[in-house]
Amino acid sequence: MTAQGTTTVEKSLQKVLEKLESARKMQDDWMKNGINFVDLYVDDAGGDWLAEWGKVAAEDLEVDRITSIDVEAIKIAIGFSNFQKTQLLEIALTHRGDTKDLRGTSFDSSVDRDVKYKRLAILGSAILSAVVTDYLYRQYPQLDRDCISNLKSQLLDKNKLSEFAISLSLQELSLQSVHGKETEKSEYKRFLGETFEAVFGAIYLECDRDFLRAGDWLIQNFISKAVVEKISQKSDLIEGTKISPQIALKRRRILGGEILEAIAFDYLYHRFPEGNVSQLTHWKKMLVAKEIFPKEFKTKLGNQYLELGSNFSRTRDWLVNNFIKTAVAELVEERENQLN
């Protein structure tokens, strides 16, 4: 176990010992003072303190059951035993939308943890979508644009992503639903799917934004098998399909569009480290509205990506240096002028 994990365990044990000591003291006071011991612990002994006390105690107990994630167990589950940026895993797996308290976590709280989680999830979602589209484009040259789009939507559906999450036991390894509130099945699956996206975002960053390496992890563990299952149900998708020049252009357009989306969110994620998801999405929309990209740019970007040997990093550098970086700088300057 890492030093960080050892420290977390020691803190948890200390909390348990403190609670046991409090319980022993309360028991001693009860034995010594009888029912009058209540006066020592409750201000309004004549009121409805017992019912309220029971509710508070139950909530405290539920929160204390899970106060930290087992980083080593998560590393094993995702197959990254040497995962170094463990803080990212903590962010991905400690999101709880129904609680105001996240006790026992070790990462910095200068920026709201929910914001960090959502940022990681939207980055993971964008990269995941590009990986799937790139895989379908390369592995199944017979698929036209609509087939690629439909298959991608099925593979990235929150229900399907929740299955991926469950296969990694993320529902057991993450800190969620600690207050025991009932969650509808559809909402629970949505949450698990989003958690998987956040974990994949963490893996992408752990891989130093290496699209190929992170993509291989995703494809080998989930996408390859899932695609085979989907296509086997509709074998006509890949049998006897002729790809005309027009269809080929549309294929490159959907590929370029996904690469553009992924690179844009990747750049904005790092350019605005404290921006929330709404702000990142807003910046992306402003980029589109600025019309910095030439006509039919998605198709051209698809061509550029293929000419660069499907190298995401080189394509990202080319796109950022030639279009995005300058455009964002201009947008920031425009905003600052408006504020002044």
Automatic annotation (TrEMBL):
All residue ranges annotated as the RNase III domain in the record: 71-208, 237-336
Keyword Hydrolase in annotation: yes
Superkingdom of the organism of origin: Bacteria
Gene3D superfamilies linked: Ribonuclease III domain (1.10.1520.10)
Keywords, comma-separated and alphabetical: Hydrolase
PANTHER family per record: DICER-RELATED
Protein name in the entry: Ribonuclease III domain-containing protein
Originating organism: Microcoleus anatoxicus PTRS2
Lineage: Bacteria, Bacillati, Cyanobacteriota, Cyanophyceae, Oscillatoriophycideae
